[in-house]
Amino acid sequence: MGRAFVLSLAKEGGLVALSDIPTREKEGQEVVSHVEAMGGKSIWVPLDVTKEEAWKAAVSDGVLGVLANNAGIVTPYDATAVQPEQISLAEFHKSTSIMIDGALLGHKEWSSIVNISAKAGMVGGVGTLGYGTSKWALRGSTKYMAGTLPAAGIRARVNSVLGLVDQNSDDVIGEMCNALANMNYLKRSAGPEKVANLVVYLASDGSSFSTGSEFWWMEGGNDSASCR
Ligand SMILES: NC(=O)c1ccc[n+]([C@@H]2O[C@H](COP(=O)([O-])OP(=O)(O)OC[C@H]3O[C@@H](n4cnc5c(N)ncnc54)[C@H](O)[C@@H]3O)[C@@H](O)[C@H]2O)c1
């Protein structure tokens, strides 16, 4: 999804910094090359979102525009239905450190912050304990940061995006997305570009009065079709 965000934001002009964990540099540089081939401007900035020093280094030039907090993981622990005695704080913290701590560390002097949550942050379920808890918390932090940053004199808008279904892979995630797509009115999944369109809107002046808001998106009517 991050790739689609970078390509769509780059089409709007300006410089798009693309971040991921340092070991993903090759993939990151490929996206940068793609943007340059389109005539756009992009740079690779390695960033492990769980590390405060890495955030400081990543934003060291002091020019902060728009941030999309997109980093996320589903761990094997999350994919299973853990019994109470199997709950592992260390495994749980793998999810929360990226999706809660990581986003929290990123809440700085940006003009617009877009937190990528998920439907797992709107409902409960079996398994996905760390993932779902993190996405619920991300929605909560969106609401509080939308008030906290301006109260501290920082002109930042903070919104969150929820309920995405965008994968067509052959793995278990792809199967789950297909099942969800079959439950919606349009009977198909959205591609990442659809989500990227929303990120571009939330980054723009066109959404300048939206803050602390949640955008339910990429559902193809799933919500209206009473699947929650
Ligand atoms: N794909 C979907 O249908 C869907 C649905 C709901 C929500 N989301 C959310 O959208 C976001 C993107 O999902 P995706 O499907 O593109 O997943 P993805 O796995 O392709 O991308 C997630 C990226 O986060 C990066 N990442 C992991 N840990 C990191 C860290 N510590 N620091 C920096 N980067 C880190 C990964 O390397 C990866 O490139 C996630 O937050 C996910 O929870 C996706």
TrEMBL record:
The keyword Acetylation does not apply. Pfam families: adh_short_C2. Keywords: Oxidoreductase. It comes from the Eukaryota. GO terms for molecular function: oxidoreductase activity. InterPro entries: NAD(P)-bd_dom_sf, SDR_DHRS6-like, SDR_fam. Belongs to the short-chain dehydrogenases/reductases (SDR) family. This is NAD(P)-binding protein. It comes from Gonapodya prolifera (strain JEL478). The lineage of its organism: Eukaryota, Fungi, Fungi incertae sedis, Chytridiomycota, Chytridiomycota incertae sedis.
